């Protein structure tokens, strides 16, 4: 498909602002089925050829969920881009509103149209997994906050029978039960799909990779179809090192970017520390690097990437990981 027309879409909970880059026309619709149908009529009135048109929007989570479904059903091509990439491409700007934001998204999309990749439809099982996983993440975060508060109250001497501690303990237990139920439902959905189930258990053949990391990786990669190669996924997770130098004055060590999926990075960090304890090859590598005077954190990051390469390797080969089989890494 050769894209000729770009439409920028700025989404909020209740409304969507649309701007056609070439025609410079604006339309605001409700973020519901009635509004989506209104958009179709507007596109016809503007004589916009849908076969050469792409809608560009930012990642907005659930706000775009119904809109994306509608676009897929009507075979309208769209893509979601990082909000920070759009912001940095604009240079110095003053003022903002929804119409202006939609126009800026459209301008960004038109400039990058040759490099934009259309979002592929996601099957219902994967959508279900994504929503279950995001709900689990939210509950885990809230439970962690309660656990930290509980430790602080104990530190200042509040007795365990006090209602302050008892209420929070009950909430922590309730969160734990719901997290367990969500994880069980995620496993049920995975087990019903042979391709998901196969990859789920292949990943766990790698030491340090458990159920939670396996689930998260399958969901984030759309069952290993979203990313072209492991390096791109490492960038997404924030474990890929990048050079940091300029001319002859700036010569810094390679470093990872802070622009990353922090939840995946945390899971990989826990996985790497577990693998160092139980995987002989990785433990020997870790000790050898430290004896050479290398940084502990940079070494752990290398282990994270080794685990990522192993994960992609076992899925590509469709065979379990064999310890000390170097081609697997």
| Name of the CATH homologous superfamily of the largest domain | YqgF/RNase H-like domain
Quote the distance from N terminus to C terminus: 37 Å
How are strands sequenced across the largest beta sheet? 3-2-1-4-5
Q: What portion of residues belong to β-strands?
A: 5-15%
In this structure, how is the largest beta sheet organized? Answer: 5 strands, mixed
Q: What sequence of helices (H) and strands (E) makes up the elements?
A: EEEHEHEHHHHHHHEEHHH
CATH topology of the largest domain: Nucleotidyltransferase, domain 5
Radius of gyration: 24 Å
Mean pLDDT: 89
Helix amount, in percent?
A: 55-70%
- The tally of beta strands, per DSSP, is 7
CATH architectural category of the largest domain: 2-Layer Sandwich
Low-confidence regions = none
Number of helices, where a helix is a run of at least 4 consecutive DSSP H or I residues: 12
The CATH class of the largest domain turns out to be: Alpha Beta
Shape: globular
Total discrete domains? 3
Class from helix and strand fractions: alpha/beta
């Amino acid at each position: 498909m050769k894209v000729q027309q770009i439409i920028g879409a700025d989404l909020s909970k209740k409304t969507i602002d649309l701007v056609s880059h070439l025609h410079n026309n604006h339309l605001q619709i409700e973020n519901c089925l009635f509004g989506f149908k209104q958009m179709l009529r507007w596109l016809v009135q503007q004589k916009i050829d849908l076969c050469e048109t792409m809608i560009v929007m930012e990642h907005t989570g659930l706000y775009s969920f119904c809109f994306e479904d509608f676009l897929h059903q009507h075979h309208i091509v769209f893509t979601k881009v990082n909000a920070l990439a759009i912001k940095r491409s604009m240079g110095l700007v003053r003022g903002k509103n929804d119409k202006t934001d939609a126009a800026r998204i459209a301008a960004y999309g038109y400039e990058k149209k040759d490099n934009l990749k259309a979002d592929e439809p996601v099957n219902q099982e994967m959508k279900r997994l994504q929503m279950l996983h995001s709900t689990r993440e939210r509950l885990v975060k809230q439970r962690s906050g309660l656990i930290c508060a509980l430790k602080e109250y104990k530190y200042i001497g509040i007795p365990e029978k006090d209602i302050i501690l008892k209420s929070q303990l009950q909430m922590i237990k309730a969160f734990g039960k719901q997290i367990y139920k969500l994880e069980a439902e995620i496993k049920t959905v995975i087990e019903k799909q042979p391709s998901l189930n196969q990859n789920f258990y292949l990943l766990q053949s790698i030491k340090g990779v458990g159920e939670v990391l396996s689930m998260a990786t399958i969901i984030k990669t759309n069952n290993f179809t979203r990313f072209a190669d492991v390096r791109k996924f490492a960038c997404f997770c924030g474990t890929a090192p990048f050079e940091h130098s300029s001319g002859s004055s700036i010569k810094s060590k390679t470093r990872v970017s802070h622009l990353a999926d922090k939840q995946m990075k945390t899971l990989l960090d826990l996985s790497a520390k577990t693998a160092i304890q139980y995987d002989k090859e990785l433990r020997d590598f870790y000790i050898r690097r430290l004896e050479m005077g290398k940084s502990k954190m940079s070494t752990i990051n290398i282990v994270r990437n080794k685990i990522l390469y192993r994960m992609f390797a076992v899925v590509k080969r469709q065979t379990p990981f064999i310890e000390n089989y170097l081609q697997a890494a």
